[in-house]
Amino acid sequence: MIVEELAVTAKSGLRERQRRERGDTILQAAFALLAEKGYDALTMEELAERVGISRQTLYHHFASKEDIALRAVMIFAEEGIQSIRAIDPLLPPIDRLERIIRWMMEIRFTPTRAAFVRARPMLARIKASPEYREAFDRRARAIQDIADAAVEAGQIQQGLSSAMVVQILLALVCDPSYEEMVDAGKATPAEVAESVALFFRRGVERRSEA
Amino acid sequence: MIVEELAVTAKSGLRERQRRERGDTILQAAFALLAEKGYDALTMEELAERVGISRQTLYHHFASKEDIALRAVMIFAEEGIQSIRAIDPLLPPIDRLERIIRWMMEIRFTPTRAAFVRARPMLARIKASPEYREAFDRRARAIQDIADAAVEAGQIQQGLSSAMVVQILLALVCDPSYEEMVDAGKATPAEVAESVALFFRRGVERRSEA
């Protein structure tokens, strides 16, 4: 009896692992397709073909294109939170804040992310999902912890609360129109990231003078 | 014959003026209702009632609620452009930029505008309209002129182009989530406006030292 149960568990464990692995494979293919053609041109048909599975199997894993997008954005969000937490805690908090904004500005121009940043109507729908809100709030809190430390260390100019520093950082990072500047040839992605990081640093940092 | 034509022109001129005046009256009522209840709760029925006209007459002026919203946003956009152009040109350009961002941050918390800022899905649709894009571009150019003057006067820190200064100013102003800070009791509207203006000024201004 117990042996039988274990066998069933092992079998379903294996099946669950296989299922998860196929889900990962699908997501990888979806990311590659997104980077190649962007969100709007991505179809479930093409994705199934790329992975070498039937449409039915694909729909077994993801209910819709939007479902895939939400999963992708959640993976990005988790990566973001991990990156923030991975920053050397011995660095001065103001340097950690600058590193965060620089990284966030750079990463949005990488092919896969760019496909999402440019798919605005889709993004607007995802942003309303509770799962995304929760990840967004966790990311904001991770930044808030560092902003608090910067205020405590006397590195933030007077008149700016740490909540305001987080708000400003996210306002700068979340604006969807840097891509238009790049498209118009007014700046390269690297120049945009550098300018925004520089501006942010100068704007929040307490000056040593007087 | 000529007299008759003049009479017809005068008559249609009068009719056109009456039509425009009624359009203004409707918009004023719409603004008041928006400030009271917000965009989502506004109905064409209630608006017609408030103005004291039939629904049919209302629809003769505005095809839809969205149509009214677009008209309102266009009026705001024009006001914004006029306000920018009305700033004393003898002021140092950097002071003019600070004045613009302060004004834009303050005005969004006035009741009528707040109703729009909070009606995001509606705003997303309006933003796609060519008429709005055109007004947005004109506003950006008005700011760009001042940013160019600030660069020319040596008031902007090195490494920031005037295009980037405009981009950053608009990214800060266009973020929809300051309201969440205010709702959460983390800052008053005046504090938000002051902080963002202070941060912007410090972030773009060239330091006098070294």
From TrEMBL, chains A, B:
Instruction: Tell me yes or no: is DNA-binding among this UniProt entry's keywords.
Output: yes
Q: Would the keyword Transcription be found if you checked this record's keyword annotation?
A: yes
Q: Which GO terms describe its biological process?
A: negative regulation of DNA-templated transcription
Please give the organism.
Capsulimonas corticalis
Question: What does UniProt list as this organism's lineage?
Answer: Bacteria, Bacillati, Armatimonadota, Armatimonadia, Capsulimonadales
PANTHER family in the cross-refs? HTH-TYPE TRANSCRIPTIONAL REGULATOR BETI, HTH-TYPE TRANSCRIPTIONAL REGULATOR RUTR
- Please give one Gene Ontology molecular function term for this protein: DNA-binding transcription factor activity
Q: What is this protein called?
A: Uncharacterized protein
Q: By its UniProt entry, which Pfam families does this protein fall under?
A: TetR_N
SUPFAM superfamilies, per this entry?
Homeodomain-like, Tetracyclin repressor-like, C-terminal domain
- Which keywords has UniProt assigned to this entry? DNA-binding, Transcription, Transcription regulation
